[in-house]
Amino acid sequence: MTDIKNRYEEAKKRYAEIGVDTDEVLQKLDDVKISMHCWQGDDVKGFLTPQGELTGGIMSTGSYPGAAHSPEELRQDLEKAYSLIPGKHKLNLHAIYLDTDEKVDLNQIEPKHFTKWVQWAKVQGVGLDFNPTYFSHPMMKDGMTLSHPDKKVRDYWIEHGKRSRKVAEYMGREIGQTCINNFWMPDGMKDNPIDRYTPRKRMMEALDEIFEEKLNEEYTKEAVESKLFGLGAEAYTVGSHEFYMGYGLTRNKLICLDAGHFHPTEVISNKLSSIALFSKGIMLHVSRPVRWDSDHVVIMDDELQEIAKELVRNNLLSKTNIGLDFFDATINRIAAWVIGTRNTQKAILKAMLEPIEDLKAMELEFDFTKRMAYTEELKDFPYADVWNYYCEQKGVPVGLDWLEEVRNYENNVLAIRK
Ligand code: RNT
Ligand code: ZN
Questions:
Q1: Among 39, 102, 48, 49, which Cα is nearest to 74's?
Q2: Which of 10, 195, 280, 291 yields a CA-CA distance of 20 to 30 A from 242?
Q3: Quick one: 145 and 178 in the same domain?
Q4: Sequence-ordered list of residues with C-beta below 8 angstroms from that of 379, at least 6 positions apart, any chain
Q5: Residue 295 gets which letter from DSSP?
Q6: 192/326 same-domain check
Q7: How does strand 127-131 pair with strand 90-94?
Q8: Is 156 in the same domain as 193?
Q9: Do 58 and 167 reside in the same domain of the chain?
Q10: Does ligand 1 come within 6 angstroms of the Cβ of 233?
Q11: Which Pfam families has this protein been placed in (predicted)?
């Protein structure tokens, strides 16, 4: 233990040499909340129907044992995950995760179907975010929801959207933290459409109807999430980036950027500064695209670090709601949460440990030599010693120690699940 402290003191000195105060940085890191997505815990199945099949252009592969099958099990797993992650965070719930004995459909959801989550969140000290669920449902017809030509289909989903806003408002009011309600619709076509315009117009009008009523923004704000393509919607997705950028900017909604929803070489890190200049705010789905999949577990790759640097260097953390979005059923699901969340925090820490003002000055002086020398050298600075100390201070396992705890939990809890 003293070893961790000693290493921290050494690291602190090294960072002080380049003008970075590590104690101050750790205090700032404490304010960064990550919204952990509930859906990694059960492969995006939810509790609306007993054996819900995942549709809507997204897919979870793998059959690792121990998935949660009830809200109780999911909460138990979440508690385990949060206990291995430093700091206080948020939970991102989808409508299909309602917790009630009543048989309710998506166009009937009410705040009361989520009271158990709210009570639990209060006890845990976590905030809540929300998402209406526009997939895995028979009313998703021909791959469409809000853009479907049949008004009956649209009306069903409009009602769901309106109700989701009431749930989010209730969550924000009860918890005392703004609940971000994120709208993502998979609507699209497998092959080349004749008419790309009319479905988008229908989607726009449906969204306008959903958002007609003004709600208290202290309790809830809405975000809209774009996507380039999905499985079965390869040629056309109604809610593209341009669509939602236009929508979000003109309707004063947050713009949600999912790291896996763009062309394979296109990155969201390069979009943040522009969106920040014009939008009310940003929601992130930190995720990892691999080939055609958008939802691999977040690892410490270049893009994650680039996203973190953009947020920190440009002072965008207060404008940005950081959420995660991945689902891997081939590994322990609690480990997936822990790895993805800790990586996201660690990337932000690493970005905070840069001498930002000095780096900006080098650039302003066009001293690109110094800029490169510094940014390269910084890669080898002992940020991990700062991170380990932070974990220890927060009472969570340091380094690989968390894995042992996940293994024990796996043996004692997950292995005996039906
Ligand atoms: C799908 C979107 C969306 C979902 C969740 C479950 O590609 O990223 O955010 O992953 O709503
Ligand atoms: Zn997403």
A1: 39
A2: 291
A3: yes
A4: none
A5: E
A6: yes
A7: parallel
A8: yes
A9: yes
A10: no
A11: RhaA
C-alpha span between 249 and 146 (Å, rounded): 20
Cα 418 to ligand 2 centroid, rounded to whole Å: 29
Q: Say yes or no: CB of residue 207 within 6 Å of ligand 1.
A: no
Of 310, 330, 352, which closes a domain? Answer: 352
Dump pLDDT digits (tens) for 318-349: 999 999 999 999 999 999 999 999 999 999 99
The encoded tokens of residue 39 equal 């859906």
Whether pLDDT at 51 is above 80: no
Task: Identify the domain boundary among 321, 352, 383.
Answer: 352
- Within 63-114, where are the H helices? 71-82
Same structural domain, 126 and 264:
yes
Sequence-distant contacts of 267-273: CB under 8 A, at least 24 apart: 267/303, 267/306, 268/303, 268/307, 269/303, 269/306, 269/307, 269/309, 269/310, 270/306, 270/310, 272/307, 272/310, 272/311, 272/314, 272/316, 272/320, 273/310, 273/314, 273/316
Domain that holds residue 367: 1-31+356-418
Give the DSSP per-residue string, 106-117. Answer: GGG--GGGGHHH
Domain count, the chain: 2
Q: Cα separation of 338 and 325, whole Å?
A: 13
Nearest ligand, CA 92: 1
- Write the pLDDT tens digit of every residue in 11-32: 999 999 999 999 999 999 999 9
The token pair that represents 83 in the structure block: 């206990």
What is the rounded distance in angstroms from the CA atom of residue 220 to the CA atom of residue 222? 7
